[in-house]
Amino acid sequence: NAGVTQTPKFQVLKTGQSMTLQCAQDMNHEYMSWYRQDPGMGLRLIHYSVGAGITDQGEVPNGYNVSRSTTEDFPLRLLSAAPSQTSVYFCASSYSGLGQGHGYTFGSGTRLTVV
Amino acid sequence: DAKTTQPTSMDCAEGRAANLPCNHSTISGNEYVYWYRQIHSQGPQYIIHGLKNNETNEMASLIITEDRKSSTLILPHATLRDTAVYYCIVRVAIIGGGADGLTFGKGTHLIIQP
Prior knowledge:
heterodimer, A: mainly beta, seven-stranded mixed beta sheet, four-stranded antiparallel beta sheet, 49% strand, B: mainly beta, five-stranded mixed beta sheet, 0% helix, globular
């Protein structure tokens, strides 16, 4: 049982390049989400999904796209990377619904630098 | 989601109990108190949550005041590995019911001293 797996762990991009950050979970969680964490700051929600085929925007969605074709995978796409997107990205998943009590399980993060 | 207030940093001696306070004076009746921690460079880790009763698990205890306006996370026997940023988060427990996700503030940087 791997939990939440994020790849790659590190990435350097040039301004204007595109890439996809991968996130996969093997816990059959309905809910998945992406956060970014800038130095010295808390996490901010980018996009989330409450199930396959359903996605919605979080607090800071601009510059990012997501899709959820399967329960297991929730990739985050940067369409045209900008230096302001230099950050650590975390994927999280959870059961949804009241009273599940499991909390969110986070991946180990992808450290992205845009030069 | 209700706003929370936590001290910026705290020290605790190894082997002693670490008591981390959180103020959430505007909490609503359907909002839970969640605690997460983030060890340097790692993803946040769920610790415990509660609604109004005190809770205990293998990691920690959560004490919520009767008026629910504040809570304390207790690590009973702190070790060096408990050095981390601890986040107190208040939110409803229903996922997918509108504005979603966890709102992370800056948390409390707990430093366990040898």
